[in-house]
Design brief:
- The complex is a heterotrimer of chains A (294), B (841) and C (193).
- By secondary structure, chain A is α+β, with helices and mostly antiparallel strands.
- Chain A has two domains: 240 residues, Alpha-Beta Plaits; 38 residues, Single alpha-helices involved in coiled-coils or other helix-helix interfaces (Up-down Bundle), CATH 1.20.5.
- Helix content of chain A is 27%, strand content 18%.
- Chain A has eight helices and eleven strands.
- The longest helix of chain A is centred in the C-terminal third of the chain and has 24 residues.
- Chain B folds into four domains: 267 residues, Dimethylsulfoxide Reductase, domain 2 (3-Layer(aba) Sandwich), CATH 3.40.228; 138 residues, Rossmann fold, CATH 3.40.50.740; 48 residues, no CATH class; 157 residues, Barwin-like endoglucanases.
- In chain B, strands 26-28-27-33-25-31 form a six-stranded mixed sheet. A five-stranded parallel sheet of chain B has the order 3-2-1-6-7, with helices on both faces. In chain B, strands 10-11-12 form a three-stranded parallel sheet, with no helix packed on it.
- The longest helix of chain B is centred in the middle third of the chain and has 19 residues.
- Classes of the chains: A alpha+beta (294), B alpha/beta (841), C alpha+beta (193).
- Chains B and C meet through helix 2, helix 10, helix 13, strand 10 and strand 11 of B and strand 1, strand 2, strand 3, helix 2 and strand 4 of C.
Chain lengths: 294, 841, 193
C-alpha cells in the first residue's frame, strides 16, 4: 500500500483544481478500531508519542485510567475510559481510542482558509501541513470530533497524521502496529468494512451484543477510521462519540454558498479591473516617482 | 506455563483468575482474544476488581482476595457432582485410582492427620499411597506399621494399591469427592462473596467443555501472582491443577495450567536456581545429612511408585547424571571422582534462606552484607519499613542498577533526618550496570522459550556489563584468597572460570557451558551416533554420571549445540497451525512446546481432538511422532501404559500429592489469609494455614478486625507501568502520573470520600497516602453474611522517580502496608488480601 | 531526466511559494511528507526486558555500524517476525526508546560512606577492590564449616545475593557459580516475590 507518489484529493483554502486528482487508481486506507477487544492498555498512545516524537505534557490523576480529558496538540491518540452500567445492572468498562477520524468530507479542511495547510490525500488521509498553517483555529471549529488542537508555542494546529510518513513508505501507522490485542487493524477501506461487519455479526450471534455494529458516520461522508461498537445505537456512551456527526453549518455555509459568492466577487473584481483598463488605459507613473536612472 | 502464549489461541474456554493478563501481559493476551475471535472461546474472569481483562470477558465474578481455594474447590465439587469429568483421562493419567494409606484423615476440622500443635508441623507418614496391587472389589487392606523401632524415612511404595472402579472408599477419587463435597455453592458464597447463582453460572460454563462426555473441547487456566502471593499460594495453584486433571485438560493444545510469570527472565532465574533451595535445572540443594554425593543422590533421586501393570518413565531417575554434569561444569578439572566430584564445595542447607527470611535475619544482624543486582529489595517488600531498618544494620550493601533506586538510597529514605543519616553505618556501593539493549545473552519466557538477544549499543558513561562486574568482583576475591588464604578457599580457587577473557566473560561462551559438552568421546550404542571430546551435547539424554560430560543446567541442554545457537533461531514456519513454531528459538525441555503432550492422546495414542493434533503414536514406525516433540519415551507403545507425567515417579498426574510434596496437605484446603476479616467458615477453630511461616521481630505485626483494620486490601501492577522502573520514564509517567487507591463507589459513599481526594490507608505496619480512585469496578461484598469493602493499590511509586523527585507523591511505597508472612511451600509473601483501615488524609 | 522524490518536492515547493493571487496554480507541492526517520538506521533484534511474554523488538540506531559512528537509539518497534508479539508492543515496550536514552540512568560508580549524607564518586578499580575485601572479610568471619553435629556444611551465612528479573540466564549462572562457591545460602531472586 505504498503511497510513494502522493495523490491529493482536496486542498484547504484552495479555489482551483487539485493537481493530479482522479488521475490514478488509488487504494483508500482505513483504520479499524474494535472497541470490544480493546483493553485500554495505551500502547497506541505511547507508540504515537514515541514515533511522532511528541513532547512530554504534565498530567494529573482525574479519577480515571484515562491519561487526560481530551487529545492535545502533543497527544494525538487518547483512549477514553467509561464505566457503563447496562440495563441488567452489569458493568462494562468501555475503552475507545480517540483520534482524528480522517473524514471523507473533512470539516477541518473545509473550514481552513490557508492554502494547502490541510490536504486530503487520495488514500483518504487528512494531513496538516504546519508550514502553511496560519494558526487561525478555524479547523478546530470545523471538526465534529474535537480533534485538531492549537499549540500555543508553535502557534499552529496539530493532530494525528495517520502516520502518513509511515504509510507512504508502505508501513502501517505506529498505533496499529503496537496494538497488542489486534483491536486495531489497518488495510483498505473496503477490507476494513468487511472485517468490521464480520466482527459485529459475531458479537451479535455469539457474544450476546444484539446491537453490535459498525460506526462509519455518513454525516461526514464516512471516515477512514471506523469503529466496531458493542452497541452501535448509542455511540455517545463511548466517551462522547457523536451519534450523527456533521460539519458545522457555519463552515458549510462559509465553504459552499458563501464561497461561490466570494469567487463571483473575485471574478467580478477582475472583470472590473479589465473594463477599467479598457476604458482608462494603463495607470501612468510620473517620471520623478520612478527613481533616478543608474 | 505448561503450554505457551500462542497456544492460548487453541482454547475453547478460559478461566483467568489470580492474573490480569490484559494489563500485565498485553501482547500475550492477544492469543486469548484470538481464541474468542476465531473459536468463539469463552472467557471467565475472577478477580477482586473488574480489571481491563474483565472488560473483554464473557463472565466476570468479583471475589474476595484470598478466597481462591474456596472458589476452585467449589468447581471441583461441581464437576464431580455433575459428572463433568474426563473419565478415561482421570482413570489412566492421574492417581485417581490409587489407594491412600489407612489413617489418613481429611481436614474436616481444618487439620490433616499427623499434626503436632506444639511444633506446628505435620508427621506426613499417612499422606502416602497404600502398598498392594489391584483392590477392585476387595476389602480394604490394613496397613500395619512395621515393628522396628526407628522408622525409615517415608518413601512411596513401589507397588501401589489401586481400584480402577474408583469406588474404594480410600481411593484418591473418593477422598477427593469427600474433601470437596464441603465446598457447596452456599459455602463458596459465604467465603468468596460470589453470589451462588453467579458461581453456578461460572461452574456450569467452565465445566461445559465436558458436557455429555465430550472429550474434544479444551479449557485453559491462566494465572499469575494473584494466586502465588498468598499464604496458601501454592495450594491455590494445586487446586487448579487438580481441576484441570479431572477435566483432562493438561498436556493438550489450548489447555494446561499456565503461570504467566511477571518478568522477562523470572522463568530463567528459577530454571537457573537464583533461589536458595535449588541448583540449576531444579536439582535440590544438598542438606547436611547428605554427607557425600551418594547420600545426596539417594535422597533426591525418586524411585518408581505405581500400580504393577502400569509403566513409569520417572525421568528424575537420571538425577545423578544431571548432578555430576553440573559439578563438572562448576568446578571443571577439580571435580574428580576421587574428590566426590567436588560435592563438598557446595554449601549444605538445613533451614530456609528465602527472601523474607533474608531480610529478617539482616534485621537481626546476622546477614552483614548484600549484593543486589537489578533488584530493588526495599520496594519489593513485604514491609518496606522493616527492610529499610534491616539495611541500616548491615555493614555493606552493593547495588548494581540502571536508575537511582530506593534500595541504594535507603539511608535517605523520606523522613530520615540528617542526624539519623549520620548514625547509619552501612557502606553502600552503587554500580551503574547495563540495560537490556546494551547486553546480549538470553532470557527464558514463561512459555519456556530461551531467546538470544543482541546488544545494540554500549552502556552509557562508565556503566559496565553486569557479568563483567560480577566476574571482576569474584576474581578479585579469588586473588585475595590466593594471596592471603582464608576460610575454605578451595571452591573459590577451583571454580571453573576459564573464559577467553575471564574479566569479561562472553555470554555465548557461558551459554555453551550451560548447554554442556563432552569431556570424552561418547557413543550411543543404539544409534551408533558419536560425539567427540569437546563437542557440544545435542541434548540431555547424553548426560553421564561418570564425569565424561559437563552441563551447567541439564534442562537447557540442547540450547547451543554443535549445530549452533538453537536459542537464536528465527524460523517463522508453523506447519501445524497450532502456533508451535518449532524452529523459533528453543524451548526447554528438548524443544517441547507443550509439556505432558502424551496426554493429548487417548490410551491408544490417538489425539483426543483430531483437529488439534500435537503428537500421536505411529504404529508402523513404532514411535511417538507429531507436530510437537513428544514429551515421552519415544518408543514406549500405548499397550505398555506408561504414564504421560514422566517427571512424577507415579507416571501420572497427582490429584493426591503424597508425602512431603506440600506443607499443608495432599489436597488443598481453604484457609483464611493471615489477616482476615472473618473466621474460616469451614472450621473457625483453624482459620489460617496451620503451617504458615510468620516472623517474630518487633516489626512483624499483624492486624485484626478488632483493631479497626476492617478493609481488605490487595496490591497489583498497572499496564502503563513496570514495577519500579518506568517511574523514571516520562512517557509512562505521562500516561499514569500519580499513585492512587481504587475504592468502590459504595465505600466512597460510606466513608464520604470523593474521587481525587487524598486518603490515608493504614495497616498494622505502615501508612500509604494517595488519591482515591472511586470506581464502580469494585463493589462492596457480603462475606459470611457481613458487608465488607475491598480496595486495591498499584505498587509503582516509591521515593525516587520523576513524580517523586518533583514532590508530587507522598513517597509512600505500597509495601509499607504488606505483612511479613509467607507461603510455607514457595516462601512467597502475602501481598494480596491483608487488612487495612481507610481515612481521609 | 531522473528526478528524485526529494528534488520533486523542492521544485514543487518552489512552485508553491510562488502561489498566485487567485490560487489557480497548477503544480504546487501540497504534500511535503516527513521523512521516514528509520529509513537507513541499523536494526538490532532484541527481547523486551519487561514482562515474561518476551516480545521481540527491533532497536533502531543511528548509523550503519561504520567505525566512525557512535550508535544512538532513535526508535524501538516490535519485531513483526516474532511469533508471539508479531510486531505489537504494550505501553511499556512502546516506550523502550526512552528507557535506553533516559537521562536519569546511572553512569558512574558511587559510594556512600558510613555516617555520610551524600554520594561520593569512586573509581571502578577502588570500588571493586573494596567490595572484594568486604566480601572476603564477611565470609571469613561468618563461614560455618561444620554444623552442631559435626557434619560438613561449608556455609557462608553472613552475606546474601539478590538477583533481578532482567538478569540474563548467563549472568544468573555465573552468580550461582560464584556465590555457591563462596558458600552463600541467601541466594534469592525477584522470582521468589
Amino acid at each position: 500500500m505504498s503511497q510513494a507518489t502522493l495523490e491529493i484529493r482536496a486542498i484547504s483554502g484552495h479555489a482551483g483544481s487539485v493537481p493530479g486528482a482522479g488521475v490514478k487508481r488509488e487504494l483508500e486506507v482505513c483504520k479499524l478500531i474494535d472497541t470490544t477487544t480493546c483493553i485500554g492498555c495505551k500502547a497506541c498512545e505511547v507508540a504515537c508519542l514515541e514515533w511522532n516524537g511528541l513532547t512530554f505534557s504534565e498530567t494529573t490523576f482525574q479519577n480515571s485510567y484515562q491519561t487526560m480529558p481530551e487529545t492535545a496538540w502533543n497527544y494525538w491518540n487518547l483512549i477514553k475510559f467509561n464505566e457503563h452500567e447496562r440495563d441488567d445492572g452489569s458493568l462494562m468498562l468501555l475503552m475507545r481510542k480517540d483520534q482524528c477520524m480522517h473524514c471523507e468530507e473533512p470539516g477541518c479542511l473545509a473550514a481552513c482558509p490557508a492554502d494547502g495547510a490541510i490536504v486530503q490525500y487520495a488514500n483518504g488521509i487528512v494531513d496538516f501541513q504546519q508550514d502553511r498553517c496560519i494558526g487561525c483555529g478555524y479547523c478546530i471549529t470545523g471538526c465534529p470530533f474535537n480533534i485538531p488542537k492549537f499549540s500555543p508555542q508553535a502557534r499552529k494546529v496539530f493532530k494525528c497524521t495517520l502516520c502518513a510518513d509511515r504509510v507512504t513508505q508502505g508501513l502501517e501507522p505506529a498505533c496499529i502496529k503496537s496494538c497488542p490485542t489486534g483491536c486495531l487493524h489497518f488495510g483498505t477501506k473496503a477490507e476494513m468494512k468487511e472485517l468490521a461487519d464480520h466482527r459485529a455479526t459475531q458479537l451479535r450471534e455469539h457474544s450476546g451484543f444484539a446491537k453490535a455494529g459498525v460506526y462509519d458516520p455518513s454525516g461526514v461522508g464516512g471516515t477512514h477510521v471506523i469503529y466496531v461498537l458493542h452497541d452501535a445505537s448509542d455511540p455517545e456512551v463511548y466517551g462522547g462519540l457523536p451519534a450523527d456527526p456533521h460539519v458545522p453549518w457555519t463552515v458549510q455555509l462559509w465553504k459552499k454558498p458563501l464561497k461561490w459568492l466570494g469567487n463571483l466577487a473575485i471574478v467580478a473584481g477582475v472583470a472590473g479591473v479589465f473594463i477599467h483598463y479598457l476604458r482608462y488605459g494603463p495607470k501612468t507613473v510620473p517620471e520623478d516617482l520612478q527613481g533616478g536612472k543608474p | 506455563m505448561t503450554n505457551g502464549w500462542i497456544d492460548i489461541k487453541n482454547t475453547d474456554m478460559m478461566l483467568i483468575m489470580g492474573g490480569n493478563p490484559a494489563e500485565n501481559h498485553p501482547c500475550g493476551f492477544k492469543w486469548a482474544i484470538e481464541a474468542k475471535r476465531n473459536r468463539n472461546a469463552k472467557m471467565i474472569v475472577v478477580d477482586p476488581r473488574f480489571t481491563r481483562t474483565a472488560a473483554t470477558a464473557d463472565l466476570f465474578l468479583q471475589i474476595r482476595a484470598g478466597a481462591d481455594i474456596a472458589f476452585l474447590g467449589g468447581l471441583v465439587n461441581y464437576a464431580i457432582q455433575n459428572n463433568r469429568l474426563a473419565k478415561e483421562y482421570l482413570l489412566n493419567y492421574t492417581n485417581a485410582s490409587f489407594l491412600v494409606k489407612e489413617g489418613f484423615q481429611l481436614p474436616e476440622n481444618g487439620l490433616y492427620s499427623g499434626f503436632d500443635p506444639a511444633t506446628q508441623t505435620y508427621d506426613k507418614s499417612t499422606w502416602n499411597y497404600q502398598e498392594g496391587g489391584n483392590m477392585a472389589g476387595k476389602a480394604a487392606p490394613i496397613d500395619r506399621p512395621a515393628a522396628t523401632a526407628a522408622p525409615a524415612p517415608a518413601v512411596l511404595p513401589p507397588n501401589v494399591a489401586y481400584d480402577l472402579a474408583l469406588e474404594h472408599p480410600r481411593c484418591v477419587f473418593q477422598l477427593l469427592k469427600k474433601q470437596y463435597a464441603r465446598y457447596t455453592p452456599e459455602t463458596v458464597e459465604r467465603i468468596t462473596g460470589i453470589p451462588k447463582d453467579q458461581f453456578l453460572k461460572a461452574a456450569d460454563l467452565f465445566t461445559s467443555i465436558r458436557k455429555d462426555g465430550d472429550t474434544k473441547k479444551v479449557a485453559s487456566v491462566i494465572y499469575a501472582v494473584g494466586w502465588t502471593q498468598h499464604t496458601v499460594g501454592t495450594q491455590i495453584i494445586r487446586t487448579a491443577a487438580i481441576l484441570q486433571l479431572m477435566l483432562g485438560n493438561v498436556g493438550r493444545a489450548g489447555g494446561g495450567v499456565n503461570a504467566l510469570r511477571g518478568h522477562s527472565n523470572i522463568q530463567g532465574a528459577t530454571d537457573m536456581a537464583g533461589v536458595f533451595d535449588l541448583l540449576p535445572g531444579y536439582l535440590k540443594m544438598p542438606r547436611p545429612e547428605d554427607t557425600d554425593l551418594a547420600a545426596y543422590l539417594k535422597r533426591v533421586t525418586p524411585t518408581v511408585s505405581k500400580p504393577g501393570p502400569w509403566d513409569s518413565f520417572s525421568y528424575w531417575s537420571n538425577t545423578p547424571k544431571f548432578a555430576v554434569s553440573l559439578l563438572k561444569a562448576l568446578y571443571g578439572p577439580a571435580a574428580t571422582k576421587q574428590d566426590d566430584w567436588a560435592f563438598h564445595y557446595l554449601p549444605k542447607i538445613d533451614r530456609q534462606y528465602s527472601w523474607t527470611q533474608l531480610w529478617d535475619r539482616m534485621y537481626r544482624g546476622e546477614v552483614k552484607g548484600l549484593l543486589s543486582f537489578g533488584m530493588n529489595g526495599v520496594m519489593i517488600g513485604p514491609d518496606t519499613k522493616k527492610n529499610i531498618a534491616a539495611l541500616k544494620k548491615a555493614e555493606w550493601l552493593v547495588v548494581g542498577e540502571l536508575y537511582p533506586d530506593e534500595t541504594s538510597e535507603f539511608w535517605r529514605a523520606p523522613g530520615t533526618t540528617t542526624e539519623q543519616m549520620r548514625q547509619i553505618q552501612t557502606t553502600v556501593y552503587r554500580l551503574p550496570c547495563a540495560g537490556f539493549a546494551e547486553k546480549d545473552g538470553s532470557f527464558t519466557n514463561s512459555a519456556r522459550w530461551l531467546q538470544w538477544k543482541n546488544a545494540a549499543l554500549p552502556p552509557p558513561g562508565d556503566a559496565r556489563l553486569d557479568q563483567d562486574i560480577l566476574a571482576q568482583i569474584f576474581l578479585r576475591v579469588r586473588d585475595l584468597y590466593k594471596k592471603e588464604g582464608g576460610k575454605f578457599p578451595d571452591p573459590i580457587l577451583n571454580a571453573a572460570w576459564s573464559y577467553t577473557d575471564p574479566q569479561h566473560p562472553s555470554l555465548s561462551e557461558v551459554t555453551k557451558e550451560i548447554n554442556g559438552k563432552a569431556l570424552a568421546d561418547l557413543k550411543d550404542e543404539k544409534t551408533g551416533q558419536e560425539i567427540k571430546t569437546g563437542q557440544q551435547l545435542p541434548g540431555f539424554a547424553w548426560l553421564k554420571d561418570d564425569g565424561t560430560t559437563a552441563a551447567g543446567n541439564w534442562i537447557y541442554c540442547g540450547a547451543w549445540t554443535e549445530a549452533g545457537p538453537q536459542l537464536a533461531r528465527r524460523g517463522t514456519e508453523d506447519p501445524s497451525g497450532l502456533g508451535i513454531y518449532p524452529n523459533w528459538a528453543w524451548s526447554w525441555p528438548a524443544n517441547r512446546r507443550v509439556l505432558y503432550n502424551r496426554a493429548s492422546c487417548d490410551v491408544e495414542g490417538k489425539p483426543w481432538d483430531p483437529s488439534r493434533k500435537q503428537v500421536w503414536w505411529n504404529e508402523a514406525a513404532g514411535r511417538w511422532v507429531g507436530n510437537d516433540v513428544p514429551d515421552f519415551k519415544a518408543d514406549s507403545p500405548p499397550k505398555d501404559h506408561m504414564g504421560p507425567f514422566i517427571m512424577n515417579p507415579e507416571g501420572v498426574g497427582r490429584i493426591f500429592a503424597p508425602l512431603a510434596a506440600f506443607a499443608e496437605g495432599p489436597f488443598p484446603e481453604h484457609y483464611e489469609p493471615m489477616e482476615s476479616p472473618v473466621k474460616n467458615p469451614l472450621h473457625p477453630n483453624q482459620s489460617n494455614n496451620p503451617v504458615v511461616k510468620k516472623f517474630t521481630t518487633a516489626e512483624d505485626v499483624y492486624g485484626t478486625v478488632e483493631q479497626g483494620f476492617t478493609v481488605i486490601c490487595t496490591t497489583y501492577r498497572l499496564t502503563e507501568h513496570y514495577h519500579y522502573w518506568t517511574k523514571h520514564n516520562p512517557m509512562n509517567v505521562e500516561t499514569v502520573p500519580e499513585p492512587f487507591v481504587e475504592i468502590s463507589a459504595d465505600m466512597a459513599k460510606d466513608y464520604g470520600i470523593e474521587g481525587g481526594e487524598t486518603i490515608k490507608v493504614t495497616s498494622a505496619r505502615g501508612t500509604y497516602i494517595a488519591k482515591a480512585f472511586v470506581t464502580r469496578r469494585i463493589k462492596a461484598m457480603l462475606i459470611d453474611g457481613k458487608k465488607m469493602h475491598q480496595i486495591g493499590i498499584p505498587i509503582h511509586w516509591g521515593y525516587r522517580g520523576i513524580a517523586e523527585d518533583a514532590g508530587k507523591t507522598a513517597n509512600t511505597p505500597a509495601n509499607l502496608l504488606t505483612p511479613t508472612v509467607i507461603d510455607p511451600n514457595a516462601f512467597t509473601p502475602e501481598f494480596k488480601g491483608f487488612l487495612v483501615k481507610v481515612e481521609k488524609a | 531526466m531522473d528526478t528524485t522524490r526529494r528534488d520533486f518536492l523542492k521544485v514543487a515547493a518552489a512552485g508553491g511559494a510562488a502561489a498566485t493571487v487567485f490560487g489557480f496554480d497548477l503544480a504546487p507541492a501540497y504534500a511535503q511528507l516527513r521523512e521516514l526517520k528509520i529509513a537507513r538506521a541499523t536494526e538490532t533484534r532484541s527481547t523486551c526486558p519487561y514482562c515474561s511474554v518476551s516480545c521481540g523488538v527491533i532497536i533502531y540506531t543511528l548509523g550503519d555500524r561504520a567505525k566512525n559512528v557512535t550508535p544512538q537509539v532513535i526508535h524501538v518497534e516490535g519485531d513483526p517476525d516474532h511469533p508471539i508479539n508479531r510486531g505489537t508492543l504494550c505501553p511499556k515496550g512502546a516506550s523502550l526508546e526512552q528507557d535506553i536514552l533516559n537521562p536519569r540512568r546511572l553512569t558512574k560508580p558511587q559510594v556512600r560512606r558510613p555516617g555520610k549524607t551524600e554520594w561520593e564518586d569512586i573509581s571502578w578499580d577502588n570500588a571493586i577492590g573494596e567490595i572484594a575485601q568486604r566480601v572476603k572479610k564477611t565470609r571469613d568471619e561468618t563461614f560455618v564449616e561444620k554444623d552442631a553435629s559435626g557434619r560438613t556444611v561449608n556455609r557462608c551465612e553472613g552475606m546474601a545475593f539478590t538477583g533481578g528479573c532482567t538478569d540474563t540466564n548467563e549472568f544468573n549462572y555465573l552468580v550461582v557459580k560464584a556465590m555457591r562457591s563462596l558458600g552463600v545460602c541467601y541466594l534469592e531472586n525477584q522470582a521468589r516475590v
